[in-house]
Every structure is written in structure tokens, then in C-alpha cells.
Design brief:
The protein has 396 residues and is mainly alpha-helical. The chain contains 14 helices and no strands. The chain is globular and about 55 Å long.
Length: 396
């Protein structure tokens, strides 16, 4: 991996996303606290968080189409510049519709950026370096998932909200500079086909129809998203049942998951090279490990075992996430890469929302144990799907 960071273009992209990602997590904490403080309603806060999740369903495909139609570097620069301005808008917006509108716009731009970034990465590194590149990106994301919320909480406590939003805005501008300095990955804008944008996604359908192995991995990722959505909804409620204060237990559990993701992303490259099994089988084993860790977490009655179980789940998630993204990038032709990635983003986030919604109803209607058992149902599906991926014959 050390050789990968000698690639100037990849290093610029990685560093820029590390800075902007840290700023995003800092403002995530600050923004949620700000919304709750301004409107004084848990329902408003919950609705605001759901509103920010919804654009992924629509703007994943839109972002993918844009990433295949326009130069990806230019699209990413425009997205970061837009986010730098929009995050400051929360300081001046005072009405609920204005907050919802800004939240929708920010989330929409996030998904466009994600599709463009995923489509750009394979043009910056060699094909056989994609696994290491995705691993390095996942490790970075895991670290900032731990550091960002902690830093956001400290900054909110020590300074005004203006400082938090200003830092996030500056972090996007740093990302703009880093992307501008990238020399490779220059892509000419595609010629319009004359068809409506949604008609072009027929090519995505045909692509998956011809690559059944990749379609199978994507379906497993969808099941995983259902379980993850339910798990993340039930986790803070489950944390109340542990023998420490709710806030401390929940924070420790989230940190243990992120540490597991980091570990999984760190070991995935040597595992893939030395395990002697296909990446498809390794992906299946990782999904089983993740699902088992998630399911066992809810069966623990004290913090220690719960931390170990959720760490194991995080390791499986880190390995499976890196492998899935790598295989998707390697097997997708450049002309379709944005649309394929954008479509997968939309489907996965849709299933996360479904899992969250179903778990939310279960938590309101049934005792905690019954609700967490409902979440485990999706997780068990993940175990079965991962096992099927491991034992099936590889489909060309």
C-alpha cells in the first residue's frame, strides 16, 4: 500500500476526501444538535434525518448519469463548491422548510459526488491496485467516522455553531483544491445519445444480465443493507439495556464497529492475495462474519461481549465493502461506470431506509428483545446469502 501513496493523483484524491469527510462528520453532529436546539422537537430532528436519506434513492442514478456524461473531475469540483456554500446556509435559514430544502440539496449533491468519485478512481490507479485503493479509502472513512463525531461534539461544546459549519465549508474548499491538482483521469464529455436519461439505464440492466456473478453479489449487498438499516435503528435503543450509561455504551459500540471496519479494510488485501480463494468466496465469508457479529451483539447482556461482537461484525463489513466496490469497479466498463455505481447507491440506500423503517415500527410496537430479534431476521438472511456466495460455483 505504501507504493500506492506514491501515486500523486490518488494521494491528492485520498487526502482531499479525508479532510472533507472529517468536516462532514463534524458538521453532522453539529447540524443535528442545531436542528434540535432550534426547533426543540425530536420528531423534527428524526424527520430531518430521514429527509437527508431520501435523495440517495433518486440522485444516485442521476449522479451516475452525470458522471458518464460530463468530465468527472469538473463534476466533483462543482459538487464540493456547492456543498461549501450550502452548509453555510443553515446559519441563515430559520424556517423548517428552508432546513429541509438545504438538507435535500446537500444530500443530493453528496450522492452525485459519490458516483463521480467512484467512476473516477479506476482511471487514477492501475486495475490491480484497485483493491488497495478501496482498502485505503475505507480505512480513512473508518477513522474519520470515529474522530469526526467526537471532534464535532467537542467543537459544539467549546464554540458556536458558526465555527462548526465554517470548518465544514473550508474542508470542501480544500477538497476542491486537491481535485484541481489531479493531473490524471481527465475525461471528455460524452456525446448526447438523443435518448432520455432514464432510457440509458437499459444498458445497466443489460450489463447486470450478462454478469450474473456480479448481480448475485449486488443482491447480497441489498440484503445486507436491509439488515444494516434495522441494526442501526435498534442499536442506540439496545445500548440503554447495557450496564453503563446509554450515551457511553452507544458511543463505544459505534467506535468498536468503526475499528472493526478499519481492521477489515487493512487485512483484505493480504487475505485476497494469500487466502487461495476467489474474491467472490472471500466476500461471502465476510458477509457471514458481519451478519454473525451483528446478530450476536443483540444477544449480549454486558458491554464487553457486545463490543467484541460488534467489532467482529465491523471486520466483516470492512472486508465485504472493499471487495464489492473493487469487483464492481474492475468489471464495469468506463462508459457505464457512473450509471452502474449510481444505481447501486440508490438501491442500497433504499434498502437501508426500508430496514430502518421496519425496525422503527417494531421498536414502537414490541419489547426491545422482540424488536432486536426482528432486526436479526434480516441479518440471518445476510448469513444465508453470504453462505450461498461462498459455496456456489463461480458464474462467468
Amino acid at each position: 500500500m505504501r507504493a500506492l501513496f506514491k501515486n500523486r493523483d490518488f494521494l491528492l484524491l485520498w487526502a482531499g476526501q479525508a479532510v472533507s469527510g472529517l468536516g462532514t462528520w463534524i458538521s453532522f453532529v453539529g447540524l443535528n444538535l442545531y436542528v434540535y436546539e432550534l426547533f426543540g422537537s425530536g420528531k423534527v430532528l428524526g424527520t430531518f434525518m430521514v429527509v437527508r436519506l431520501l435523495p440517495a434513492v433518486f440522485f444516485g442514478p442521476v449522479g451516475g448519469w452525470l458522471a458518464d456524461r460530463f468530465p468527472r473531475r469538473s463534476l466533483m469540483i462543482a459538487c464540493d463548491a456547492g456543498r461549501a456554500v450550502l452548509i453555510l446556509g443553515f446559519l441563515y435559514a430559520k424556517s423548517l422548510p428552508a432546513f429541509f430544502a438545504l438538507g435535500l440539496l446537500l444530500s443530493a449533491i453528496d450522492k452525485v459526488f459519490a458516483a463521480a468519485q467512484g467512476a473516477l478512481l479506476p482511471s487514477l490507479v492501475a486495475k490491480d491496485e484497485l483493491l488497495e485503493a478501496n482498502s485505503a479509502s475505507k480505512m480513512m472513512q473508518s477513522v474519520i467516522t470515529v474522530l469526526g463525531p467526537a471532534a464535532g461534539g467537542l467543537l459544539v461544546a467549546a464554540f458556536a455553531y458558526e465555527i462548526v459549519f465554517l470548518l465544514d465549508s473550508l474542508s470542501f474548499l480544500v477538497s476542491v483544491v486537491s481535485i484541481c491538482l489531479i493531473a490524471g483521469g481527465r475525461q471528455a464529455a460524452s456525446q448526447a445519445s438523443g435518448e432520455a436519461p432514464w432510457a440509458e439505464f437499459r444498458a445497466v440492466r443489460d450489463f447486470f444480465a450478462q454478469r450474473l456473478s456480479l448481480l448475485f453479489l449486488t443482491l447480497i449487498r441489498v440484503i445486507d443493507a436491509l439488515g444494516s438499516g434495522a441494526f442501526n435503528t435498534a442499536l442506540p435503543i439496545f445500548a440503554k439495556s447495557l450496564t453503563v450509561s446509554r450515551g457511553a455504551a452507544y458511543g463505544w459500540l459505534v467506535g468498536a464497529w468503526a475499528l472493526g471496519e478499519f481492521t477489515g479494510a487493512f487485512v483484505v488485501n493480504p487475505l485476497a492475495r494469500k487466502a487461495g480463494v476467489s474474491r467472490e468466496k472471500l466476500f461471502g465469508a465476510a458477509v457471514v462474519l458481519m451478519a454473525l457479529g451483528m446478530g450476536l451483539t443483540f444477544r449480549c447482556e454486558s458491554v464487553g461481549p457486545a463490543l467484541l461482537a460488534i467489532f467482529i461484525g465491523g471486520v466483516g463489513d470492512g472486508v465485504s465493502n472493499v471487495l464489492f466496490n473493487t469487483v464492481l469497479m474492475q468489471e464495469t466498463p468506463d462508459a457505464l461506470r457512473g450509471k452502474v455505481l449510481g444505481t447501486v447507491i440508490a438501491v442500497v440506500y433504499s434498502m437501508v431506509a426500508v430496514g430502518m423503517t421496519l425496525a422503527g415500527f417494531a421498536l414502537d410496537a414490541f419489547p426491545l428483545q422482540a424488536a432486536t430479534d426482528a432486526a436479526v431476521v434480516f441479518i440471518v438472511l445476510g448469513v444465508l446469502a453470504g453462505s450461498a456466495a461462498f459455496f456456489r460455483r463461480r458464474t462467468p
